Amino acid sequence: MDRNEVLLVGRLSAAAEEHALPSGDTVAKWRVIVRRRRHRRGAALTDSIPCVTFNPEVAAIVRALKPRDYIEVAGAFRCRVFGPSAAKIWRYEVEVSSAKPFEAELTDPATDPPSDFEGSVTALIPRQVAYLARAS
User: Fold this and answer.
1) Cα separation of 8 and 71, whole Å?
2) Which CATH fold would you assign to the domain 6-102?
3) Exposed, middle or buried, 59 (CB in 10 Å: 0-12/13-18/19+)?
4) Rounded distance, CA 44 to CA 103, Å?
5) Residue 74's beta-bridge partner residues?
6) What pLDDT does residue 1 have?
């Protein structure tokens, strides 16, 4: 069975922008900054992930947040194609179906495992891949 589900927890990069479409719908666009595992040289790398929604309730939640506030979004990964047939532009983004402010709690999974994963999402310190899967 195919599944297209995305859950992101990160920081809002800037205020959401809204654009009116020719159909009369409004699309809200913003980016979520998500940190990667620390690089070998100690520098923290980040990804800036584009997000969109056509849902006015979700857009209102994102508009209420300030840049650099933590946010949790859930949705689906989409590939959109724009432009004339001779010069297509491909864009990848997360089409968000729900969003909420997120209270960041950093825990160490080795010493303080989360007690309940079903009701909440906790930002975890990443474990080494070698610990999760043995190399042959």
Assistant:
1) 8
2) OB fold (Dihydrolipoamide Acetyltransferase, E2P) (2.40.50)
3) buried
4) 21
5) 7, 98
6) 86
Is residue 82 very low, low, confident or very high in pLDDT (cuts 50, 70, 90)? confident
Give residue 40's identity as a one-letter amino acid code.
Answer: R
Enter the pTM of the model: 0.70
- Identify residue 79 by its one-letter amino acid code: C
Residue 121: how many other CB atoms lie within 10 Å: 14
Tell me the CA distances in angstroms from 120 to 29, 43, 103, 116, one per residue in order: 25, 29, 10, 7
Encoded tokens for 22: 């020719």
CA 72 to chain centre: 7
Determine the length of the chain.
Answer: 136
Q: CA-CA distance, 54 to 95, in Å (whole number)?
A: 8
54 three-state secondary structure: coil
